[in-house]
Amino acid sequence: MRNPLADKVVEIKPSGIRKFFDIVSEMKDAISLGVGEPDFDTPWHIRDEGIYSLEKGRTFYTSNAGLKELKVEISRYLHRRVQVDYDADHEVLVTVGGSEAIDIGLRAMLNPGDEVLIPQPSYVSYEPCAVLAGGVPVIIDLKAENEFRLTAKELEEAITDKTKVLILPFPNNPTGAIMERKDLEEIAKVIIEKDIFVMSDEIYSELSYNGDHVSIASLPGMKERTILINGFSKAYAMTGWRLGYACGPREIIEQMVKIHQFAIMCAPTTSQYAAVEALKNGDEDVAQMREAYNQRRRYLLHAFQEMGLPCFEPYGAFYVFPCIKEFGMTSDEFATRFLEEKKVAVVPGTAFGESGEGFVRISYAYSLENLKIAIGRLAEFVQELKDKKKEN
Amino acid sequence: MREKILGIIEKNSRVDVKELAVILGVEEIDVVNEMAAMEAEGVICGYHTLIDWEKTSIEKVSALIEVRVTPQRGQGFDSIAERIYKYPEVNSVYLISGGFDLLVTLEGKSLKEISQFVSDKLSTQESILSTATHFILKKYKDHGTILTKKYDDERMKITP
């Protein structure tokens, strides 16, 4: 029989998280700090609106780009929260999670051989999506000494004649790093000068703890070269609803709508109705969840300080990214031993790119009570490693 | 800071000041002072425990009583409310809008004890026109806490 598979797909490495997932799933008594989604339930008024839409029999397709009402609310929301104005009719596309927007955005922009700059550590899907879209991923290794922000110098050095798109994943999963206005202004200069485009994945924008999130699209000259991606998963605890959106220049969005219409048809109708409610009446829920995450974030940073585990202060998302280099183990070894010896799962930094080596991702999408138990075990583990180091 | 402290201790009064300082990102001494001030001002009235008595072997019956009263000259509803709230078995007394005036919640050992309180102590008060007693059969949610169900974490244990 002939080989039924496409080489391009076979060559893609499976996610590094898979291995841990398999081990943890087998360990009944393991507790996890490895989750990448909120611990809160979707606020009830949003769920109720979804249920109501089902009761009303709103079970049909919506128009390809999404419900008009939702696109209008998204446009209002972005005006309100990041001061960027998008035309709801031509510059907004409702997608199946931010993930779909990443995929079809790259497919709409890349020609074979075009280079895509991907700062790492970062979310696992950019690289494979770039490859599947015919692009060539070029990794920029972010550095701990810059608090894992992207600097203009790093960007400039990575740009070649073939560079087409920069992926900008902030607030960042897994590091929790953010880009402040001044950081964005510096890279925007380079982006405009070198005439490249930006795919700004702002899915964690509402989880910013040092002032409001700044979108690169709000800087002068940037809206016309930015695809802004956001969604409902993190801000409103709606991961399972699979709903996100992309906003950008009409000519790009039109091509994205084309792929979306043939591949997906439209985002789930129930989720779209629920999302309208989220945007209209959900600001207070978001503020409450942000405050809860922020409390946990402070708790963790304090606990790391007490146990002597170095960690820069992350101002976004719901992850901390402590450094474990001093123990002379790889991230993978550290995570494996921690799981085996203390039955707590964390994710090795290398699951998010080579530059995550020496770090582990700890999620604080858990209640403080649960965090305390897990962090107590981490403190024990760290102490044992330190004692052993002293003996040698 | 006041609002944030209250937001936290309303849900968990056992959190200690050291931890409050850490999670709010403020100095411990400021938390101590703020809480002392709120206690002195009567903003913080007590640190109670939410108990689901249903799950114990101790028998308790609680009831809501609607009370219609004649307000008294110069005193309004205050003096009659005082006469009611001084009974230790009374848990709460609210003046409310709508079809009746006071809502009284009451806890007793048995139906009989509560009935007796209503007929002997409440109904006999001169300014009380009528009462309607509702016995509580089941508490689903109390003080913002769901008592009837525990929800497990159904998320996958590791996700990117």
What would your notes on this structure say?
The complex is a heterodimer of chains A (392) and B (160). Chain A has 392 residues and is of the alpha/beta class. Chain A has two domains: 7-42 and 284-391, Aspartate Aminotransferase, domain 1, CATH 3.90.1150.10; 44-282, Aspartate Aminotransferase, domain 2 (3-Layer(aba) Sandwich). Chain A has 13 helices and twelve strands. Chain A has helices spanning 7-10, 17-26, 44-55, 68-82, 97-109, 126-132, 152-158, 181-193, 250-263, 269-281, 283-307, 331-342, 368-391; strands at residues 31-32, 92-95, 115-120, 136-141, 163-168, 197-201, 226-231, 244-247, 319-320, 344-345, 347-348, 360-363. In chain A, helix 3 crosses helix 10 (269-281) and helix 7 packs parallel to helix 8 (181-193). The longest helix of chain A is centred in the C-terminal third of the chain and has 25 residues, at 283-307. The N and C termini of chain A lie far apart (58 Å). Chain B has 160 residues and is α+β, with helices and mostly antiparallel strands. Chain B has two domains: 2-40; 53-138, Lrp/AsnC effector binding domain/regulation of amino acid metabolism (RAM) domain (Alpha-Beta Plaits). In chain B, 32% of the residues lie in helices and 21% in strands. Chain B has a four-stranded antiparallel β-sheet with strand order 2-3-1-4. Chain B has a two-stranded antiparallel ribbon with strand order 5-6. In chain B, helix 2 packs across helix 3. The chains are: A alpha/beta (392), B alpha+beta (160). The A-B interface holds A 15, 17, 20-21, 24-25, 30, 32, 34-37, 39, 41, 123-125, 173, 291, 295-296, 298-299, 302, 345, 347, 351-352, 368 and B 4, 7-8, 19, 22-25, 151, 153, 155-160.
Layout of SSEs?
The complex is a heterodimer of chains A (392) and B (160).
Chain A (H helix, E strand, L loop, with lengths): L6 H4 L6 H10 L4 E2 L11 H12 L12 H15 L9 E4 L1 H13 L5 E6 L5 H7 L3 E6 L10 H7 L4 E6 L12 H13 L3 E5 L24 E6 L12 E4 L2 H14 L5 H13 L1 H25 L11 E2 L10 H12 L1 E2 L1 E2 L11 E4 L4 H24 L1
Parallel strand pairs in A: 1-10, 3-4, 3-5, 5-6, 6-7
Antiparallel strand pairs in A: 2-8, 7-8, 9-12, 11-12
Helix pairs in contact in A: 3-10, 4-10, 5-6, 5-9, 7-8, 11-13
Chain B lengths: L1 H10 L5 H8 L3 H13 L20 E9 L8 H8 L4 E6 L6 E7 L2 H12 L5 E8 L5 E2 L2 E2 L14
Antiparallel strand pairs in B: 1-3, 1-4, 2-3, 5-6
